[in-house]
Amino acid sequence: MTPTSLDGLVARDAELAVFQDFLDRLAHGRGGCALLEGEAGIGKSTLVAVLRDQARRAGFEVSHSTCDELRQRFPLAVLLDALGVDPRSPDPLRVWAATGEYGGSPSPPRADDDAEATARGWSVSLVGGDPVMAGVERLLELVDRLCANGPLVMAVDDLQCADEASLLVWHHLCRATLQLPLLLVGACRPVPRRTDLVRLRREIKARYGSVLSLDRLPREAVAELTRRVTGAPPGPALAERLELGAGNPFYVRELLDALARVRIATPSGPVTELADVAGPDAEQAADSRGLHARQSWRTLASAIADRIDFVSADTREVLRTAALLGADFSVAELTQVLGRSALDLAPTMEEAIAAGVLESEGIRLRFRHELLREALQESIPGPLRVTLRRDAAKALTAGGAPVEKVAELLLAATDAADGWELDWLAENAAGLSRRAPDVAAELIGHALGNAAHDDPRRDVLEDHLAALSFLMARYEQAEQSTRRILAAPASRERHGQAVWFLGYTLMRTNRLGEAHDLIARAVADPRASPVWQPRLGVLAAMAGLSADHYDEAAEAAKRILAAGGPDPDPMTAGYALHTMAMSRFARGDMTGTVEAIDQALAVIHAEPELTDLRLLLSANQAAALINLDRFAEAAERMRTARALAERTGTPRINSLIVLAGELAYQQGRWDDARAELATFADPTRNAFVQYLPTVVHGVEALIAGHRDDRRTANRHLHALPDATGTVAYQTNNGGYLLMARALAAESAGRADAAAAELRVLLDPEYAVMDDRASMFPHLVRLALDTADLPTARQAAEAARIDARANPLPRAVAAGDWCHGLIGSDPDLVLAAADAYRTAGRRLEHGNAMEDAAVLLAAAERVDHARSAAAEALAVYEGLGAVWDARRASARLRPHGVRPGVRKTRRRPQNGWAALTETETRVADLVRSGWSNPEIAKRLLLSRRTVETHVSHILAKLQAGSRREIAEIAESAESAGVTDGTGQRVAQH
């Protein structure tokens, strides 16, 4: 698009002004987001092209692509194309975005991946997570890093045809425009009316930018467009004829061009008029074709068809074939499909460009408008169109085209499949699974439906479908596929692998009895594979874990591990050690858990098929380390695991997010906890994380309750389903929720209701809660406050029993605390407070010091009481725990203890002093020009957590860009301003 493109825009001054404002803001580091809406041909693409041209002239990096229905099934295709993400790119950053690897130009998945997997006992190479979500994360990080180098403009046409993953990325990028020098411009038609686009439109309009709806041109604008195209405004007859265009700029241009091609409409004096109206000379100039066209051009479709018919027959046939390849294509693809050389095709391409059908887009060609491509496609009979797509796919296969390009055409030609695609699928299933698992599953399923029962290619395709279905959590399909494998003759290795997938599927769908019977039969079968038999034995032990048979499971795993010898199979040993670790975890042996998981992580190395196990082990080890108060080690383990989870796109990422939030909460870094939990996406359909929302809302409600923000606390408490009141939910990570409900009742002045919330902990069914001990001191205090001495004594005894059975530091401290309350012994409570102080558990430290202060005051040790109270209030001030401070003062007041002038203050809402310690560090790194991914690496956080911190910083500083954050930080340092923790701004 050249600078003269503005000449073709009529009555779009308002939209151009909006775009200019966006570009001006972008020059000052502020992002923006615009969505252009309108019918086909209304001028969306022209406006986008003008914006791109102006952005390039301003020195901004510009990316652009167009969605089309062929690529809609291929996740992220339009954004990968727009950003130039390709494993063959000379830019290492784009190579990484394409492959997940830095440096060099890694090849896409190789054909021998399955051979390597076979050497490890698998018949197919498994995808180590969700490749689509991994791609989403890499694209978001790529944009973050590109924006660190300078402003970026991203434009995408025809968003109504975008795939779901691309719209997900677009949604995240819209949010990122609030802090990055990023301008997003999307164009879409009003139909089809997609729910995700409606949501995107609503959010853009409300939060991120502008929604511009393009209307049809009024008559005077059509007249001006005619003047710009022909040199003179339309006469009455031409103006009437142009009403066929209904004010649509593209339609009007097509009509004008069609009339001009046969000289029916020509400038005549002060106007452009139809030939038979313009006078005898013009009439004489019109040829027979023009006279015929005068009668036939009664519809727009005929005018568009005429543009295509106007080119030579050879060019027309080439264009029909090109239309089947999508909205854009390369000359190389066209030569492969047509079997003609580029030199031979050059004249036809030049003619098509001159005729206004095609235009250049970098090194590719694209149709000038989708309506032209649609007209070309519609000119091919439906059955023939399907056959031609099949032939095109076959030709591209022979030319070594990328798997997604071949698969695009295969998807549209499955009805014409004649068997040749089976070989291609068998060879490329692994690569296609990594690129588009949904498409791979569909094509493989269709191919299996057409393949003969004795077709030798069925085995590998069935194995891929079983693996894909399992990894995509499509358990019904996984069960069907694996049962087909088991019902037919299969090698011992394929049989063992199928039993593993089916057994695990039955376990994840809570059919433990069926899983046990299936696996037991397979293990006892004398024909079982020597590789898979011990693996299935471990799976049986894991089924025992799921049924709470911890000791039996651990013993079985131990026997299998010992039988493996000094050089065990990594998969067998890894899952055996996982089983032993979880058995120890259930018994409260956290040190043993950590040791077993260390052994497991060492033995599984980096086996790609064991990525999920590595993440599971890492998350469980981090949880055990937190229970041991080894917080620094837990944070490091989570950081490593989270990086792997983001790289692979696994749904286990949410478990690690929540665990990071828990760690921050237990350490008293509540603002950091909220920033971590803000990145959690509730995956309600994921079997791995069905209880995680309970943790998220429970922690959020607890923080809000301690800070006396009852509205926020109630919002989180009511965000959970009624099922969260059941034992099943509460014993599975429900401790935070119980505490939040008790805190809400106590802060409302209902201590008896608060005690009732926690009294359920005394039920034997709750003995399995690994955090029960830490809640007993609160139950004892509430019971004593409500004169319920039996409950207080029962809770204290249960705490002591838990501490003996599970001598974790926090459990031992909780036991001392409870008995100190029961026996009015402040020294026991002080000892507990000291243990919490040493561990770094700030809230427990403060709460225990508060109880100790009350006991000391009751014993008339006033000076000691005042000192303990001051320490408790200092903790509360650092946490922002306004409610706890008010409760402490109220409890001490009857004893005449007033702990000095310290008053717990709420953190300011705005300004530099409003920033938390972490936010101050992030702001300082933003000031240094670091991108969010770089900051994340420096601070051992995730990129999305840093993004959340930056959003909070922008809001608190009332800044509009990262550049403004840097300027405010400079001013704060010059003025010697401190952050919210009292620390001076970092020096450089």
From TrEMBL:
<feature type="domain" description="HTH luxR-type">
    <location>
        <begin position="908"/>
        <end position="973"/>
    </location>
</feature>
<keyword id="KW-0547">Nucleotide-binding</keyword>
<dbReference type="InterPro" id="IPR000792">
    <property type="entry name" value="Tscrpt_reg_LuxR_C"/>
</dbReference>
<dbReference type="InterPro" id="IPR011990">
    <property type="entry name" value="TPR-like_helical_dom_sf"/>
</dbReference>
<protein>
    <submittedName>
        <fullName>AAA family ATPase</fullName>
    </submittedName>
</protein>
<dbReference type="Pfam" id="PF00196">
    <property type="entry name" value="GerE"/>
</dbReference>
<dbReference type="InterPro" id="IPR016032">
    <property type="entry name" value="Sig_transdc_resp-reg_C-effctor"/>
</dbReference>
<keyword id="KW-0067">ATP-binding</keyword>
<dbReference type="InterPro" id="IPR027417">
    <property type="entry name" value="P-loop_NTPase"/>
</dbReference>
<dbReference type="InterPro" id="IPR036388">
    <property type="entry name" value="WH-like_DNA-bd_sf"/>
</dbReference>
<dbReference type="Pfam" id="PF13191">
    <property type="entry name" value="AAA_16"/>
</dbReference>
<feature type="region of interest" description="Disordered">
    <location>
        <begin position="97"/>
        <end position="116"/>
    </location>
</feature>
<dbReference type="InterPro" id="IPR041664">
    <property type="entry name" value="AAA_16"/>
</dbReference>
